[in-house]
Write a structure and sequence with these properties.
Length: 371
């Protein structure tokens, strides 16, 4: 005789410790099985796009920091590249190299937060401490360069707010040497831990076709088996000068596109970022990082859409200029916002405890979801 169960609606959040921010999930359950999940967003609205209309182009940069505040440097990167394309500015070679180094250090720092907090979601606390310990080394490098550890306002239209200090290259090389063995340490501790694999492999499977249809990008898309990376497919800055690979999901522990694959892609991406950083610090030329900064940022009338490979996926800026010193409109394509919409598809049919493993594998920052 089949057991009949009633449907129940469970609210997770918006102050739930595992929702990675102020997000409310309305979960429809039948027993322990998930029938539907509805994400309710909007608790952290910053009105970024509206603020930008009242600010000059340089004044917008600090606002970009506060979207994905765990990848602030890359938010700066994407915005200044868009404005420079709109104005036709060519920045000095030294600026390009420093931007790439900072961007890849930020990618590693962002992934360390994602991987460490994901371990806590599953029940492993020690990897969280290790990841945050290693992230501190990167924040030290940022602080010695621009004085900030979280929100930087470092990349300016046409250049940088500060040149790198004399010890920066040496300390960056020391970090690369220090951090590479730490990745193996993380793998031994968490990645190939049987309990962790059991909680994440074959859970929250995202087929490639579904990922494409939902506009999913970044590590989530690559984990579904497609090695698509904007740094390779639509190169910006000087990424076409560096030799690096694009990790993608192969279903090594379960099924291609499951939660473990999404985690594993981020681990491998940190290795590739180290390769890029090594090449960039060895090739960095001399020059003035402020040589191309215009005295007045006043783009001609027109529009531009520029995209970069943010640690979480495609970060796009669509800017409309009316010829004044203020942007007429700015629209941001935030990867966290777009990737979050696939959550209901990933959760259906799994157990309620799996919601935490699936949500953590998406790696969202609510500051960017709500903007």
């Amino acid at each position: 005789m089949a057991v009949k169960t009633e449907k129940m609606v469970l609210n997770m959040g918006p102050q739930h410790p595992s929702t990675h921010g102020v997000l409310r999930l309305e979960v429809e359950l039948e027993g322990e099985l998930i029938r539907d999940v509805k994400p309710h967003i909007g608790y952290l609205h910053r009105c970024f796009e509206k603020h930008a209309e009242a600010a000059t182009y340089p004044q917008v940069i600090p606002y970009t920091d506060r979207m994905d505040y765990l990848a602030s440097m890359y938010n700066n990167f994407g915005y200044v590249v868009a404005v420079e394309r709109l104005m036709g500015i060519e920045v000095p070679e030294r600026v390009e190299y420093i931007r790439v180094i900072m961007g890849e250090l930020q990618r590693i720092a962002s992934h360390l937060v994602a991987l460490g907090t994901y371990g806590v979601d599953i029940g492993a606390f020690t990897p969280f401490l290790y990841c945050f310990r290693d992230r501190e080394h990167i924040l030290d490098l940022f602080e010695m360069t621009c004085g900030a550890r979280l929100l930087y306002n470092y990349m300016w239209v046409g250049g940088l707010s500060h040149d790198i200090p004399p010890d920066f290259v040496r300390k960056t090389k020391e970090f690369v040497t220090y951090f590479r063995p730490r990745i193996k340490e993380l793998n031994d501790l968490l990645t190939f831990n049987k309990i962790f694999i059991d909680r994440t492999a074959n859970i929250g499977i995202l087929p490639l076709e579904t990922a494409i249809n939902f506009g999913v990008t970044g590590p989530m898309l690559r984990a579904s088996g497609l090695p698509f990376d904007i740094r390779k497919e639509d190169p910006y800055s000087i990424y076409d000068r560096f030799d690096f690979d694009i990790p993608y999901g192969k279903g090594e522990m379960g099924t291609v596109g499951d939660s473990w694959d999404r985690y594993w892609v981020r681990v491998q991406e940190m290795e590739q970022s180290l390769r890029i950083i090594e090449q960039a610090v060895d090739q960095i030329p001399e020059g003035d990082v402020k040589a191309a900064i215009p005295k007045r940022v006043k783009p001609p009338k027109g529009t531009v859409y520029s995209r970069v490979e943010n640690p979480k996926g495609e970060l796009g800026y669509f800017i409309i200029s009316d010829g004044s010193v203020h942007p007429f409109r700015i629209k941001v394509r935030g990867p966290s916002f777009v990737n979050l919409q696939v959550l209901p598809e990933l959760c259906k049919g799994y157990l309620v405890a799996d919601i935490i493993a699936i949500l953590g594998s998406i790696d969202i920052v609510l500051g960017e979801v709500d903007r």
